[in-house]
């Protein structure tokens, strides 16, 4: 027993001596370690970098050695002086024995208070090509990366593409990731929170101030310039989306991305629409089976945009506005949206089939199709009896007050909406059916004119 205690004592003493020796080495040789690390980093980066404070610590991420940079400024690759990246702190974790032997293999990284500005100008030139091309004559750098522990805190990323009229801003309070590489192929696992502060494409705003919980598995092939997204999860409120696909850019920018909704509801689906389109419906809620699947597929360039196909709908659902008692119950809908060019709404088609349900126990049935969102051509049929007050409770119209009565509708419509604006062209629109008003009463306008 005494022998065991003595062995444990000497092992503890030896370990303590080793830790103290490493700590002393980190202090005595920190200037050499920092200079060597920066010298090797400069072999790989071709834009100016400013660091206000540098330090070496063995205590921050023991037993790893930490090289800590504070107030970091990295200039972008375009002419002029503009920051590609700023950070309050960037810390690299390394094996102290490897550092002692002159090898700087980064095992972990921590970034705090970081802001990145990514930009592609009108000519298609980006500002983030800052890595030097390695040549055989230039020799090999002693800095490598085997990142099993990456922590990002307080991160903001801005992305602007002046050719495609895209302006994105993403923020994250905390993301944890691991990166494993072999033969220029990088496996990346990430988990954390992401907020889309701004996502503008053309004149439309999407997902503004929407926060997602992310759990992703990515594979990046640097030689083939290919990113593969293995099934990855995005959580939005109580809903979840599974994302899979690829993005290639070696010769052309080709995307093939599929998103499938899980446990989705009406409000979540509406939040994915452009902000201007979703605003009128943002308070509506749903219960029941709501489904959603979207695919973005094709080339991305200044002259070509990918196709977008969306399938969505609900089964035996209840739709309601929380401020009113009226509900649509036993609602069913099968919908689809397709545009062979996602940036050109003249090529878009929206179809709503087998729409049916009950509005205050009155059945209705409808079908709807719209082609060309800029000059809409509509095919519509609707049949049902609608209580007028229930309809306006479900979708209020401010100029109508104290409505009573019912409307019995059995109509069909086929034609372009703009043709109805002029008497000479209105006859080119096909309208069939009847609209019977039963005991309709209401007050109209601010003056409450009785009708």
Can you walk me through this structure?
This protein has 451 residues and is mainly beta. The protein is 15% helix and 57% strand. It has 7 helices and 21 strands. The radius of gyration is 31 Å and the shape is elongated. Residues 3-30 have low confidence and may be disordered.
In a few lines, what is going on in this structure?
The protein has 451 residues and is mainly β.
Low-confidence stretches: 3-30
Relative helix content: 10-25%
Question: Which of globular, elongated, flat, extended, rod-shaped describes the shape?
Answer: elongated
- The number of distinct helices, counting runs of at least 4 residues, comes to 7
Chain-averaged pLDDT: 79
What summary fits the major beta sheet? 21 strands, mixed
* Termini gap: 102 Å
- Which class do the helix and strand fractions yield? mainly beta
Strand content: over 45%
Order of helices and strands: HHEEEHEEEEEEEEEHHEEEEEEHEHEE
Care to count the β-strands? 21
What is Rg?
31 Å
How would you describe this structure in keywords?
single chain; 451 residues; mainly beta; 21-stranded mixed sheet; 21 strands; 15% helix; elongated; disordered N terminus
Question: What is the secondary structure topology, with strand pairs?
Answer:
Layout: H1 2-28, H2 30-42, E1 49-57, E2 65-75, E3 83-94, H3 96-100, E4 104-120, E5 143-161, E6 166-182, E7 185-201, E8 204-205, E9 210-221, E10 226-236, E11 239-248, E12 254-262, H4 266-271, H5 275-278, E13 285-299, E14 307-320, E15 327-339, E16 348-359, E17 362-371, E18 377-387, H6 388-394, E19 400-416, H7 423-426, E20 430-444, E21 449-450
Parallel strand pairs: 4-5
Antiparallel strand pairs: 1-2, 2-3, 3-4, 5-6, 6-7, 7-8, 7-9, 9-10, 10-11, 11-12, 12-13, 13-14, 14-15, 15-16, 16-17, 17-18, 18-19, 19-20, 20-21
